[in-house]
Amino acid sequence: MATVKRDERLTASQGFLCVAFAGIFSKTATSPLEVVKILTQVGTFHSKKGFLSSFVLVQRSEGARAFWKGNMVSCARLFPYSAVHVATYKKIVHLHMDELGHITQWRAIAAGGLAGIIAAFVSYPLEVAETRLVAQNVQEPTYKGAAHVLASVYRNEGLRALYRGFSLTVVGAVPFSLGCYAVYVNLDRLWQEPSFRFTPLQNFINGCLAAGIAQTLSFPFETVKRKMQAQSTKLPHCGGVDVHFSGVLDCFRQVIKTNGFLSLWNGLTANTAKIVPYFGLLFACFETCKQVCLYHNGYIVSPLSYQLAPGVDQSLRPYELQEVKRYLRNRNFSSQQSDMDNRW
């Protein structure tokens, strides 16, 4: 059984701010690995000589700033994706909770997968824009930014082009969810102790392990999806895609026929190398932002540690704690006024 919890000591806006800050920072810091991964999945010339050579080729042909191609739109995509994902996930989970507020691991993972699909649909055009910006050469750009990508694709290729490959997001959610489930149902055996005793380090390892296995299982679907997002007869070299195809199934056939079955996992090295630093930075930034907010709300004595403020009821929500503090201030002021009146 897994319990769905959130820190009630943060306001809704503070919780969203922490998630956004952590996501933007971790995405920006690991952007070079993401760029190399997408270029390898699309099949541009940068990726022909392997993982490490890709970095050298990108640096030589486009310069250092090319490692942050598409990062701005990737970060901007976090806001609609996160908002829709969290709202949908909480709604689905609450429908399947028992009277004690618990939900099974399988239902929680399935709820996460369904919420992810809905959130991906809302933000999918931004993902298409990210792929197009990464695939283009920054020295000879076709697009000037995310807004230009969306307008150009809609005008020249139609609305359907902004959702090209979305079906693979839906199909890929199945192996992804199965991978997460396979990890989480075996964690007790892995650590030889119940899940409620896991330390923050163990939870971090669990998250990285689940992400690594789940993404490996669903990676072929993402590879084909990236190729479909990038391909366009309106772009030079058809967007840089290494194969030409007419649809989803034909893309799978052409990739396997041209490059072999294992080429569906091209870019997995960069993706795997990204997992630990990405989740590490995500966790560290979130906790740092959370500490600042908890200090601001009055629950801890310093933004540098989780030492609880003495005499503060940690079960109170932020607005309740502020009401208590306001009441105590007013009571102390009234007491002081009474003492002054008696002396007079």
From TrEMBL:
**Solcar repeat coordinates:** 10-95, 103-190, 198-292
Which Pfam family is one of this chain's hits? Mito_carr
Q: Does the keyword Membrane apply?
A: yes
- The residues that cross the membrane are 161-184, 204-224
Q: Which GO terms describe its cellular component?
A: membrane
Where it mainly occurs, coarsely classed, is membrane
Give the domain of life: Eukaryota
- What Gene Ontology terms for biological process does this UniProt record contain? transmembrane transport
Membrane topology note = Multi-pass membrane protein
Q: Which UniProt keywords apply?
A: Membrane, Repeat, Transmembrane, Transmembrane helix, Transport
Where can this protein be found? Membrane
The entry assigns this protein to a family as follows:
Belongs to the mitochondrial carrier (TC 2.A.29) family.
Q: What PANTHER family has UniProt attached to this entry?
A: SOLUTE CARRIER FAMILY 25 (PTHR24089)
- What is the protein named? Solute carrier family 25 member 43
| This protein's encoding gene | SLC25A43
